[in-house]
Every structure is written in structure tokens, then in C-alpha cells.
Specification:
The complex is a heterodimer. Chain A is of the alpha/beta class. Chain A has helices spanning about 40-50, 90-95, 105-115, 130-145, 160-180, 190-195, 230-250, and strands at about 1-10, 15-25, 30-35, 55-60, 75, 150-155, 180-185, 200-205, 210-215. In chain A, about 35% of the residues lie in helices and about 25% in strands. Chain A has a six-stranded mixed beta sheet with strand order 5-6-7-3-8-9, sandwiched between helices. Chain A has a three-stranded antiparallel beta sheet with strand order 2-1-4, covered by helices on one side. In chain A, helix 2 (about 90-95) runs parallel beside helix 4. By secondary structure, chain B is mainly α. Chain B has one domain: MetI-like (MetI-like fold), CATH 1.10.3720. In chain B, helix 4 (about 70-105) runs antiparallel to helix 9 (about 180-215) and helix 10 (about 225-230) runs antiparallel to helix 11 (about 235-265). The radius of gyration of chain B is 26 Å and the shape is flat. Classes of the chains: A alpha/beta, B mainly alpha. The interface of A and B includes residues 77, 79, 85 and 86 of A.
């Protein structure tokens, strides 16, 4: 299944958030959305998953999601959004219960996704017992459990320290390599973008428009921390964003 | 270190980060009770507290034991406990339900918030005559009075608690396609539980006050009736037995809620 963002514009009152965004999300690829803070990238992600309605334009689904996909458009949240009163296992079964999957079948799915995210030993733990990195692994496991057609990742690593972020990036690459998934990955971290993105979409500051789309051909598995070609991509992105970021930093927020 | 720093006076940096961190001290509370009772006992025996001002604690205890042995204790306590349980449970259940609806549905919120604000300050006991006509002279009116008294504070606590549930969790539920009912049951209610339970502490204390008031106005048995009878005979020992039973009831309800909190809210950091 592919997604097409068709001419999307959005504003809150007089406050224009984004204008004429047209973008294709190809199947099996990770598309990174980057931009200065307040460029509407998280709003755009909410629009893509149907949590918010754009004033203009629409998100079009091309083709059918796989038959076994319980929740085709599935989010991974920056703040993890785990229920603190449920264990790791309970947090995952929450999204399965809704589709009538209980008992042995739920158990199999939970075991499988916990294995894939290296969480097998933490099955009965409560979120408060887990480190930030482990919490986000639970968030990813929960997303994998519903077998999404497109993963919508809203700054999934931004709440983590840089070492943990490095580890989770490796995990995400390993997950993608084993079984390629389609993802829209919002981040403000250029390093994450060049490591994980097949396609990097640079948004300008408010009102957000697409400034440039960068394709990186190098396979995800060959990308390493500190690769010189990735560094040069990252530099290029930073020159694109530098002034925008400065300008958005100086702006007075009037909402 | 340079010559200059070596020769100047030195002193340690004073600690100023203490306080503002309450510790648990189990024995202090009982000690305060024991000290007060011992003081009353000593005062009444030594004579500087007259019998008219305060009954002797040991006499109160003796009266309590007689009450127990005669079997009258249960005759008074059982109806009271039943009234409290039925009334408070009905009021709390209705209060939680209405509170959740007020918090989640805009129309109901707009319609009921002013109404609840209007009912809240009415002394419920003033409505007892009305309730006697509506629900009958016997148990019905007492249940209704206690239920109404529990209802309003529970509503206010519940909708405040639901308003404070983390919106990002609700959005997560929506993003995974959970139904409205599932979101309420699995996300909103557990998330609001800390606030609801602390609201129930207040509600149940009010329920005990109303229980006694209702029993004073018309009941043959019950702790309230017992206290009223003792009061009108100026029997201070029995009066204090009744008051002590109420205090113990309050402590019991509160520690029961404490147990529930411990079980239900074990997930809290």
C-alpha cells in the first residue's frame, strides 16, 4: 500500500501551518520529514494517520493494505504513550483485544514482537520499571503487533539520550532489513534522517512547504555512524535549514 | 593552590537543603491519641476536669463493653453499616458515571455542571423531610440522603480527574482504532482512578456525617439514634461511645480506601 498526500494545506485560525504539500510515500521505504521546530511536521503526521483533518487537500491510500493488517496506519509516539497501569504484555494486548485477538493467538503475536524488539525478558514489567529506550521498544513492539501497512513515527527517538538513540537506530535498521516496512519518520535530528531515510523531505518554517526532497541510495545496512557521504548529506541539509531554524527561533509565538 | 587562598579563612559550606520531605512516622499518630486519652483520664481522676465537662475514658470503655455484651452494639451498628454501604455505594457509582459523562460529552457538561454546582452547597439534611415523602419514612429516605450527599463531591472529583487524564494516551487509543467505549474503560477510567479515589475519601466522610444526621431525625436503631438518645439524657459516657464508634468507622473506611489505592494504584511512580 502506498500513500499520496495531495495538495494539503492547513491552518489554525489565521495561523497558517502548511501550504500545498504534495508528497508520495512509496511502499517499503522510510520517508523522513525534517524541518525547523514549528514547521508543522508533527501536524502533517497526524493528518496522514487521520488524527487531524486538513482544511484543504487529502491523504489518498493507493492499493489495499495487507489482509492481515489490523491497523494499517500505526503510530509510534515521541512520549511512548504506554499505559502506566499495564505491563509490557498488557500494553501490547490492549491493541489486540480490540480486534478480538485474545488467549493463545494474542500470546503468539506478543511473543513474536517482543522477540523482534529484544524485550522477551521484560514481558511482565511495568513501564515505570523500564528505561526510556526500553519504553520506546515497547512502543515499536506494540506498533508491529498490529502489522501496520505504514508506520507513522513521530520523533520516536527524541526523548532518548544520544547513546540509546544510536542503539535504537541500529534496531530499527535491523527490523527494516529483516522485513522492510513503509514508514513516515518525523524528526528534527538530521543525523537520524540520513541514517534511516531512503527519502528525506525538507520542510520550510511556517507555513510549511516542501523545500527539497533528497534521495539517499546507499542501503540502510551499509550506513554507519560518521560515514563521510552521510556527513556531507547532513551538511547539505543543515545549510538548507540553518536560516529557517534561526528565523523560527526568533519568532514570537502568538497562539 | 596559590599563596593567597592558602592563607584565607576556610569554613564548610552550610547544608541548606533539608525539610519539605515528609517521612512516614507510624508511631506518632497513635501516641497523640494515647496522650490525649491519658490526659483526660488523669484529669477526671485528679478532679481538675469535672464529670460534667468530660466523661472518664475508662468509664466510656466500660460502657462500650456493656453495650457489646448486651448485644445492642450490633443492633445499632448493623443497620448503620447497611445504610452507609448501600447509600455510599449508590451515590459513588452514580457520581463516577455522571462525572465521566460530564468530562467527555460537551452537551452533558454544559447541561450538568451548573446543576451540580447548584446542588452541591445545599445541606442535604435539609431535604430529609422531602425525601421521606418521596422514598418513604424507613430505609429508602436514608439511602437516598446518603447517596445524594456522596454523589455531588464524587461527580466533581471524577470530572476533574478525567479532565486530567493524559490526552496523548487517548490519542494513542484512537490511533489504534479503539472504540469510544474501550477508550473510556481501558484508558480514561484507570487514568482517572487516582483522582477518583482521593475524591471518594471526602465523599465517604460526608456519607458518615449524613448517616448520623439521618438516623437522628428518625430511626429506632443506628449509631445516630444511639447518640441522640444519650445526648437527650445527658449520658456523656454513652455519647462518647457513640462518637468513638463513628471515629473508628471513619478510620476504617479511610484505611479500606488506602488498601484499595495500594492495590489499584501500584503502577504509580
Amino acid at each position: 500500500m502506498e500513500l499520496l498526500l495531495d495538495n494539503i494545506s492547513h491552518h489554525y485560525g489565521d495561523f497558517e501551518v502548511m501550504r500545498d504539500i504534495t508528497l508520495e510515500i512509496p511502499a517499503g521505504k522510510i520517508v523522513c520529514l525534517i524541518g525547523p521546530s514549528g514547521c508543522g511536521k508533527s501536524t502533517l503526521l497526524r493528518i496522514i494517520g487521520g488524527l487531524e483533518q486538513p482544511q484543504q487537500g487529502s491523504v489518498v491510500q493507493i492499493g489495499e493494505p495487507p489482509a492481515d493488517s489490523l491497523n494499517p496506519l500505526t503510530y509510534v509516539f515521541q512520549d511512548f504513550a504506554l499505559l502506566p497501569w499495564r505491563t509490557v504484555e498488557g500494553n501490547i494486548s490492549l491493541v489486540l483485544e480490540e480486534h478480538g485477538i485474545r488467549g493463545k493467538r494474542a500470546d503468539e503475536i506478543i511473543t513474536a514482537v517482543l522477540m523482534r524488539t529484544k524485550l522477551a525478558d521484560f514481558r511482565k514489567a511495568l513501564p515505570k520499571q523500564l528505561s526510556g529506550g526500553m519504553k520506546q521498544r515497547v512502543g515499536i513492539a506494540r506498533a508491529l503487533a498490529v502489522n501496520p501497512a505504514v508506520m507513522l513515527m513521530d520523533e520516536p527517538l527524541s526523548a532518548l539520550d544520544s547513546q540509546t538513540r544510536e542503539l535504537l537506530m541500529d534496531d530499527l535498521i535491523a527490523l527494516w532489513t529483516r522485513q522492510p516496512f513503509t514508514a513516515v519518520y518525523v524528526t528534527h535530528n538530521l543525523q537520524e534522517a540520513v541514517r534511516l531515510g531512503h527519502r528525506i523531505v525538507v520542510l520550510s518554517r511556517r507555513p510549511g512547504v516542501i523545500r527539497e526532497i533528497l534521495e539517499i541510495e546507499k542501503p540502510l545496512t551499509d550506513r554507519r555512524f560518521g560515514d563521510s557521504d552521510l556527513e556531507s548529506h547532513q551538511k547539505h541539509l543543515w545549510t538548507l535549514m540553518r536560516e529557517e531554524a534561526m528565523a523560527s527561533d526568533m519568532e514570537l509565538v502568538s497562539v | 593552590m596559590s599563596e593567597a587562598t592558602l592563607n584565607t579563612a576556610r569554613r564548610p559550606v552550610a547544608f541548606r537543603g533539608g525539610g519539605f520531605a515528609p517521612k512516614t512516622m507510624r508511631w506518632v499518630g497513635p501516641l497523640v491519641f494515647a496522650a490525649l486519652i491519658a490526659f483526660a483520664e488523669y484529669g477526671t481522676r485528679a478532679g481538675f476536669i469535672s464529670n460534667l465537662t468530660m466523661p472518664r475514658p475508662s468509664d466510656v470503655l466500660a460502657t462500650f463493653i456493656t453495650l457489646w455484651e448486651s448485644g445492642l452494639l450490633w443492633q445499632h451498628l448493623l443497620p448503620s453499616l447497611t445504610r452507609l454501604a448501600v447509600g455510599a455505594a449508590a451515590g459513588a457509582a452514580a457520581g463516577i458515571a455522571v462525572g465521566v459523562f460530564i468530562a467527555l460529552l460537551s452537551y452533558i457538561r454544559a447541561a450538568l455542571v451548573p446543576l451540580v454546582a447548584a446542588i452541591f452547597p445545599i445541606p442535604k439534611i435539609a431535604l430529609l423531610p422531602l425525601f421521606v415523602i418521596w422514598f418513604g419514612i424507613d430505609e429508602g429516605s436514608k439511602y437516598a440522603l446518603i447517596a445524594l450527599g456522596t454523589f455531588t463531591p464524587t461527580v466533581v472529583a471524577t470530572y476533574g480527574a478525567v479532565d486530567n487524564v493524559d490526552r496523548s494516551l487517548i490519542r494513542m487509543g484512537q490511533s489504534f482504532g479503539l472504540s469510544w467505549f474501550s477508550i473510556v474503560r481501558k484508558i480514561v477510567l484507570p487514568g482517572a482512578m487516582p483522582g477518583i479515589l482521593s475524591g471518594l475519601r471526602v465523599s465517604f466522610a460526608i456519607a458518615i456525617i449524613l448517616l448520623v444526621a439521618a438516623e437522628m431525625l428518625g430511626a429506632e436503631f443506628g449509631v445516630g439514634a444511639y447518640i441522640l438518645e444519650a445526648g437527650s439524657l445527658y449520658d456523656l459516657e454513652r455519647l462518647f461511645v457513640g462518637v468513638t464508634i463513628l471515629s473508628i468507622l471513619g478510620v476504617g473506611v479511610s484505611s479500606l480506601l488506602g488498601l484499595v489505592e495500594k492495590r489499584v494504584l501500584g503502577w504509580r511512580v
